[in-house]
Amino acid sequence: MTNAPSTPLVTFIGAGPGAAAHLTLGAYQALQQADVVIHDRLVGAEVLALIPENVTLIDVGKEGFGTSTDQSKIDALLVAQALPGRRVVRLKGGDCGIFGRMDEEMEALDAAGIAFTILPGLTAATVAAAEIGQSLTRRGRNTALRILTGYDVAGYADHDWAGIARSGEVSAIYMGKKSARFIQGRLLMHGAAHDTPVSVVANVSRPDQQIIGATLATLPQAVAEANGPAIILLGLAPRAAANSLPQLQEAQA
Ligand code: SAH
Description:
Layout: E1 9-14, H1 25-32, E2 36-39, H2 45-48, E3 56-59, H3 68-82, E4 87-92, H4 102-112, E5 115-119, H5 124-131, E6 145-149, E7 151-152, E8 155-156, H6 161-165, E9 170-174, H7 180-189, E10 197-202, E11 210-215, H8 219-224, E12 230-234, H9 244-252
Helix pairs in contact: 3-4
Bound molecules: S-adenosyl-L-homocysteine.
């Protein structure tokens, strides 16, 4: 960062889904130079452990969509911490620009005349796909990738179900645990095959990562097995001989 500490500046950082191995070098460097780090619950312990001890750590622990009251408190906190000229990092799980409510915070900073920069991170879907040994796009299979939320401000989110239901399509569904049965019903209603492959990956890139292979028919049961935040990769099965998991465990040992 070239700005002097006296110039209010906030750096939004995507921490990746968990492991330190999934943090970018730029993010790591910004964490070393921070005065204050304001982070979410989804930021992994390995990443938090890389923050120097003299940095003030503020946990605004909020997974997925919180209430608007919670969010406005975070917006105000960000402004209050940055205004005196502290180097503030706003650390979010995965990529800060995917279902991270970054816009509300950017707007609060704009309104207060505080500059910011954004360092994106690896999103849960990208790392989950790697962990099941699959590519999110494949020549001849899918020409698009959908990034969906199961849940939005109005409740269960509505989508282009017919498009998602087509054979070969791939969708990464965030915050889909509670709405799994709803999603299953909508997709079957729009012609999806019962045996459409599905992977549910919980606690991606953490020591307790779970990979649950399923089909659209068994999606609700698969999701019920997940012990933590989970991403649903619709249209992708875990590769039988996926080798990324043992490597990951080795890196964390
Ligand atoms: N900004 C985050 C997404 C935040 S929304 C990102 O880019 O990954 C919260 C949802 O993200 C969770 O409900 C879950 O679906 C997914 N998610 C985030 N971190 C995860 C992790 N480590 N393992 C599995 N799913 C995760």
